[in-house]
């Protein structure tokens, strides 16, 4: 059964132009071609990336954070309350006014205490600032490394300057060592991102990120197997050219360097729009969608490859809208750039008042809005360090 499915999936008429096939990609005369089995190398590379990330975040990123004055924030955790916890986990994190009234009746808490409990409970689920800084620092280093690697591997290649050169001699294009390692490192990194997505900072575009990672991994793998390597290296290099700028802007945001962050964000926005909304659709997509039809008739692999590129382009438009919205908001007021995808901590306007009230004794001891006779039913608020 598996062999039958494999034979159907790897049919030459699906993945090659008419008259060409797998036999054309057999190594001969010292010429080495890409093989599907080469992709297994990306799995151990992905796990190496995960290990390196843990080491980097706990040492280098933490040390840099301390130099920039970023410390682990202290939050007030929500008191243990089975009734409120059950509602939070199974119903909603943002109860309506009607539900708050019902929860007050069930838990014996006041409306103010219930609202404060939900604010603190939501904050517990949000990543702390230093976690965001560590993650941004790791991605900055990797994206910058990927950009430099791509530049070194492409700087002397003719298809970097004349995109039509990417199809010269297709599909019998030999694999160079620089292309091999560029591909495997990129594929390993995106596999590591997909494996760690559950523990990474959750943002509002979480689903779009999953789609992006899956489409990128599929695109890299497919372009390798079908020997679309020249097109693949150009696409990866184009994406790497701006990603490290975004991560560096996040780093300075978390460090509180407003002017530096805003300047880098403007540069990033310019690079993103030029590379993703101009060069990618009008140059790359043209040379993968229109130009190949002058060389060979369309086939399934042609449509599949370009279909994945269109998915990426849709994501580019989605993210471009977010970037423009952020730019329009902070430019007139010179405010600090905030990542619209991130969920920010909620502040409790009554915290200071609660602390003062906790020190007052009137008609019995009062601490954090709890009277002495009710302290047996409710736990006192405290700070966790």
From TrEMBL:
Catalytic reactions of this protein: sphinganine + octadecanoyl-CoA = N-(octadecanoyl)-sphinganine + CoA + H(+)
GO cellular component terms attached to this protein's record: endoplasmic reticulum membrane; nucleus
Pathway recorded for this protein: Lipid metabolism; sphingolipid metabolism; Sphingolipid metabolism
Main localization category: endoplasmic reticulum
Matches recorded under SUPFAM superfamilies: Homeodomain-like
Statement: the UniProt record of this protein carries the keyword Phosphoprotein: no
Compositional bias (Polar residues): 366-375
Taxonomy, superkingdom: Eukaryota
Composition bias, Acidic residues: 345-356
GO molecular function, one term: DNA binding
Subcellular location per the Swiss-Prot or TrEMBL entry: Endoplasmic reticulum membrane; Nucleus
UniProt-listed PROSITE patterns: HOMEOBOX_2 (PS50071), TLC (PS50922)
Identification of the protein by name: Ceramide synthase 2b
Source species: Silurus meridionalis
């Amino acid at each position: 059964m598996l062999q039958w499915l494999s034979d159907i999936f790897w049919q030459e008429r699906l993945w090659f132009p008419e008259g060409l096939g797998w036999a054309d990609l057999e190594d001969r005369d010292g010429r080495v071609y890409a093989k599907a089995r080469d992709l297994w190398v990306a799995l151990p590379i992905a796990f190496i990336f995960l290990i390196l990330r843990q080491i980097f975040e706990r040492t280098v990123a933490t040390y840099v954070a301390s130099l920039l004055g970023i410390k682990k924030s202290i939050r007030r955790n929500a008191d243990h309350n089975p009734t409120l916890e059950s509602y939070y986990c199974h119903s909603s994190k943002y109860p309506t006014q009607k539900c708050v009234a019902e929860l007050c009746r069930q838990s014996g808490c006041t409306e103010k205490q219930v609202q404060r409990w939900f604010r603190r409970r939501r904050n517990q689920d949000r990543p702390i600032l230093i976690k965001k800084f560590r993650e941004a620092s790791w991605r900055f280093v990797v994206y910058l490394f990927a950009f430099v690697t791509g530049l070194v591997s492409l700087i002397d290649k003719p298809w970097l300057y004349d995109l039509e050169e990417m199809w010269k001699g297709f599909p019998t294009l030999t694999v160079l060592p620089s292309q091999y390692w560029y591909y495997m490192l990129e594929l390993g990194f995106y596999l590591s991102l997909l494996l760690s997505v559950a523990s990474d900072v959750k943002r509002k575009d979480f689903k779009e990120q999953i789609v992006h990672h899956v489409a990128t991994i599929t695109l890299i793998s497919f372009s390798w197997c079908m020997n679309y390597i020249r097109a693949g290296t150009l696409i990866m290099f184009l994406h790497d050219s701006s990603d490290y700028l975004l991560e560096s802007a996040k780093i300075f945001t978390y460090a509180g360097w407003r002017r530096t962050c805003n300047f880098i964000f403007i540069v990033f926005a310019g690079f993103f729009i030029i590379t993703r909304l101009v060069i990618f659709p009008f140059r790359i997509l043209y040379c993968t969608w229109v130009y190949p039809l002058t060389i060979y008739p369309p086939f399934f692999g042609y449509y599949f490859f370009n279909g994945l590129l269109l998915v990426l382009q849709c994501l580019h438009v989605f993210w471009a809208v977010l970037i423009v919205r952020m730019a329009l908001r902070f430019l007139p007021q010179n405010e600090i750039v905030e990542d619209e995808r991130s969920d920010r901590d909620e502040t409790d306007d009554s915290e200071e008042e609660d602390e003062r009230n906790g020190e007052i004794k009137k008609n019995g001891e009062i601490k954090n809005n709890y009277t002495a006779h009710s302290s047996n039913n409710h736990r006192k608020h405290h700070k966790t360090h």
